[in-house]
């Protein structure tokens, strides 16, 4: 069953939902939560498919919010999907203009009473979720840094503003990895001297994995770039050898513990449908993710602090080199006229002014020192 409402309001949508349930012969609801999905027109289709798939495991009232504040006209259009082919209830809310600037007033009358509310942003999301109008309605707030243009920067920003009940699907993607690593440590308890995460360059999950390992092991975990896909390996160094999990194809991983034969384990990359379904299984706060998020912020600040001295040294050297060059340029005009006057009056040799104006001994050390500093600064920068 599909019901379309044009230029409507939330009270009419709520009344249409009640009438649709009665006509379908199910006046009472068996839904366990309200799931709000906030997306734009471009990511709507993928988000809707993932949410519908997850709602088969978790029957819910699904509210798909598609906002557009760029249009001058203000209004609300709604589509209600209900029936045997749709698990629970699905309502698509298309907000325009001023209505899109106040989404909470539209959503509040449509929330199921006495049941938890989950908000999911598949792509771009507010900086502070708990202070967002939609985020304030939810008990659980889910984001996905991989759905943004700059995943690592976005993940670090969200970690800095992390609040209770918030998580990111970047963390959910690490669940199988964390399970294998925990089992390995339980199977082979040892003192770890080093740890490293290998992943595709620019992969946000690798940074979060390194933050989690650093938080749990108390080590400065390295992140090494590979061709991917995703995370390709994790190594924990002990006195007897490495505990390693390596995955090159995104399907099977090789699991190795010192003193035991290597084994193959299933470790496939999961779809968004599986990830969101996993997150909907819990409504409480994830303390482990909160600790990893705090460590991620510390690692990011440490990286910026390590990079800043190199930049400051380079800028200082550039200013000194520019000052020497300016001094030479200012000194040259004072001597050049003198050489012309002496040549005109007495025909004296002009060799001395030439030596003073363009002495190789004056230019050589300045150029060599600048080159040395530039080389040192360029060597220091990548280590950050």
TrEMBL record:
Residues 301-384 are annotated as: Disordered. Pfam families: OpcA_G6PD_assem, OpcA_G6PD_C. Residues 373-384 have a biased composition (Polar residues). Residues 53-159 form the Glucose-6-phosphate dehydrogenase assembly protein OpcA N-terminal domain. Residues 164-292 form the Glucose-6-phosphate dehydrogenase assembly protein OpcA C-terminal domain. It comes from the Bacteria. InterPro entries: G6PDH_assembly_OpcA, OpcA_G6PD_C, OpcA_G6PD_N. Residues 311-322 have a biased composition (Basic residues). This is OxPP cycle protein OpcA.
């Amino acid at each position: 069953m599909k019901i379309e409402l044009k230029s409507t309001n939330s009270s009419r949508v709520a009344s249409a939902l009640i009438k649709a349930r009665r006509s379908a012969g199910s006046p009472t609801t068996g839904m366990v939560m309200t799931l709000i999905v906030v997306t734009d027109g471009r990511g709507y289709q993928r988000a809707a498919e993932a949410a519908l798939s997850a709602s088969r495991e978790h029957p819910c009232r699904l509210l798909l919010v598609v906002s557009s504040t760029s249009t001058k006209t203000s209004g609300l259009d709604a589509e209600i999907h209900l029936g045997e082919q749709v698990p629970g209830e699905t309502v698509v809310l298309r907000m325009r203009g001023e209505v899109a600037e106040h989404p909470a007033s539209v959503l509040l009358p449509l929330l199921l009473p006495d049941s938890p509310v989950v908000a999911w942003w598949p792509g771009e999301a507010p900086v502070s979720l708990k202070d967002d109008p939609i985020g304030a309605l939810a008990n659980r707030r889910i984001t996905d840094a991989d759905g943004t243009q700059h995943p690592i920067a976005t993940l670090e920003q969200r970690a800095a503003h992390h609040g209770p009940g918030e998580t990111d699907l970047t963390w959910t993607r690490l669940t199988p990895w964390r399970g294998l690593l925990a089992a390995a440590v339980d199977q082979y308890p040892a003192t770890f001297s080093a740890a490293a995460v290998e992943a595709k360059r620019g992969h946000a999950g690798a940074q979060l994995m390194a933050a989690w390992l650093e938080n749990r092991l108390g080590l400065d975990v390295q992140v090494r770039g590979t061709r991917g896909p995703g995370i390709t390996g994790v190594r924990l160094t002990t006195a007897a050898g490495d505990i390693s999990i390596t995955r090159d194809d995104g399907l099977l991983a090789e699991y190795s513990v010192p003193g035991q034969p290597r084994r193959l384990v299933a470790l496939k990359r999961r779809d968004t449908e599986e990830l969101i379904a996993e997150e909907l299984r819990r409504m409480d706060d994830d303390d482990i993710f909160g600790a990893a998020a705090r460590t991620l912020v510390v690692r990011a600040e440490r990286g910026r602090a390590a990079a800043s001295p190199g930049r400051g040294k380079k800028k200082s050297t550039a200013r000194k080199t520019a000052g020497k060059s300016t001094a030479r340029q200012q000194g040259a005009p004072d001597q050049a006229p003198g050489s012309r006057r002496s040549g005109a009056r007495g025909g004296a040799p002009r060799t001395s002014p030439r030596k003073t104006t363009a002495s190789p001994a004056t230019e050589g050390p300045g150029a060599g020192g600048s080159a040395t500093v530039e080389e040192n600064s360029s060597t220091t920068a990548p280590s950050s």
